[in-house]
Amino acid sequence: MNNNLHQSGVKLLNALSRHADLIMQVYLSGSLNEKQHKPGVIDNLIQLGILWRPEDSSELRLKNAVRSLLEGSLQDERNRQVDANIGSALASLTTLAAHYKEALTHGRFAEADAHLNDVTEHVYSLTENLTNNVRVLFGRINNEFGYVASIDAKIRENELAQRQVSEMLKQLELFRFDELSELAGSNRELRHLLVVTLQQCFSRVTQELAIVQARLLELLGRFREFRGRTRLLKGFLLHMEQQPDFTPGNYANLTQVPMLFNQADSLLAPASVDVSRVEHEDVLQQLVADLTVIHRNTSAQPERAAQHIQVEAQGAVDMTDDALKQAVENYFCHVIDTGQRMTALDYHTQHSLEFDPEAWLYQVIGGYQGLSEEEQAYFAIDTSGEPHPIYSGNYIIRDVELGLR
Amino acid sequence: MISEQGRVLEALLGGKFICQVSDEDAWRFLKTGGNAEALESHLNVLNRTLAKAADGDVFYAAYQTLGDAERKVLSQQFQDITANLMPLVEWLLLVQQANGADVPVTQGSAIRLGELQTTLEDTPAYAEQLAKIARYRMFGSTSTQLEGQLKQVFKRLTELGYLLKPNQDKQIYIATGKVEYLYEVLRFIDETEGLSLAEQAEQAVQQGSLI
Question: What's the domain of life for this entry (chain A) (predicted)?
Answer without folding.
Answer: Bacteria
